[in-house]
User: Which sequence fits this backbone?
């Protein structure tokens, strides 16, 4: 359906959201506290676009549970999957794959596994690689069910590492990885090894493509996240929302304008801020006309 904001104001809001710890509770991975707000926004034609470290396989299942049918960004910006009816025409530079238009920004996982293998003799005692973990170990570390942990292990573009060394050793490790061409990103639980991509780069690309295909429409973006790997999208979105976490402080940002921080945790904080930014009253007059 066409957004009521387009019909009323000739503008469109795109919401880009992290999942774990933001739209999904950090411990339970549930979204019940955001469900009513999500249904309201989706009902008015506002896309909710996951921008996450999760995999394609995970998102296929999560989209069903969250009742989302729009595009999604996986593995910290490594690739965007765009459903066919989201844009009027083929996105530039995208290929048709697995029922989606796909725009990728990173080399495949095997490349990064090869790089990790090369540095393992010197640094392997300081980390545990996802590819070497048993399903039981992934469940233990993430709190996921076995079924969800299996989906989490099906990575296409990068490799998560569990860091076991000190913070000083981690900083030196990250510098070394950057020197050899990797772009490590700190997530909520893991250090993600991948290419020169980010949630912000992916957001910016999709925004440009959406604007190209919707000339004359004023587009505004809202990004919501709770971790360091969300910083890139929080910095470039028109409005940035930091969601309070039970396990760490909100990520530090350079921006100060149009920046909000929730008081409530996870999906409760998600609803708290979006109810303020896009209140139901925005749609009242257009709803009466239709």
Assistant:
């Amino acid at each position: 359906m066409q957004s009521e904001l387009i019909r009323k104001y000739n503008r469109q809001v795109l919401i880009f959201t992290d999942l774990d710890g933001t739209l999904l509770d950090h411990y339970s991975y549930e979204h019940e506290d955001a469900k009513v707000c999500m249904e309201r926004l989706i009902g008015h034609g506002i896309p909710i676009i996951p921008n996450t470290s999760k995999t394609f396989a995970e998102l296929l299942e999560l989209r069903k549970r969250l009742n989302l049918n729009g595009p999604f960004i996986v593995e910290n910006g490594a690739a965007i999957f765009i459903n066919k009816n989201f844009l009027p025409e083929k996105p530039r530079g995208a290929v048709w794959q697995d029922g989606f238009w796909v725009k990728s920004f990173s080399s495949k996982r095997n490349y990064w596994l090869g790089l990790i293998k090369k540095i393992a003799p010197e640094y392997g005692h300081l980390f545990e690689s996802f590819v070497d973990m048993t399903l039981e170990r992934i469940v233990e570390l993430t709190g996921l069910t076995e079924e969800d942990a299996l989906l989490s292990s099906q990575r296409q573009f990068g490799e998560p590492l569990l860091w076991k060394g000190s913070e000083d050793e981690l900083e030196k490790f990250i510098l070394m990885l950057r020197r050899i061409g990797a772009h490590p990103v700190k997530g909520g639980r893991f250090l993600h090894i991948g290419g020169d991509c980010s949630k912000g780069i992916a957001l910016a690309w999709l925004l440009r493509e959406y604007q190209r295909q919707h000339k004359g429409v004023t587009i505004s973006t809202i990004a919501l996240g709770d971790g360091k790997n969300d910083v890139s999208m929080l910095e470039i979105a028109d409005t940035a929302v930091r969601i309070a976490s039970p396990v760490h402080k909100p990520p530090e940002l350079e921006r100060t304008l149009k920046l909000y921080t929730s008081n409530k945790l996870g999906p409760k904080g998600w609803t708290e801020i979006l109810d303020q930014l896009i209140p139901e009253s925005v749609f009242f007059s257009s709803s009466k006309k239709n």
Q: What stands out?
A: The longest strand covers residues 218-225. Residues 286-290 have pLDDT under 50 and may be disordered. The CA atoms of residues 8 and 286 lie 6 Å apart. The chain is about 35% helix and 20% strand.
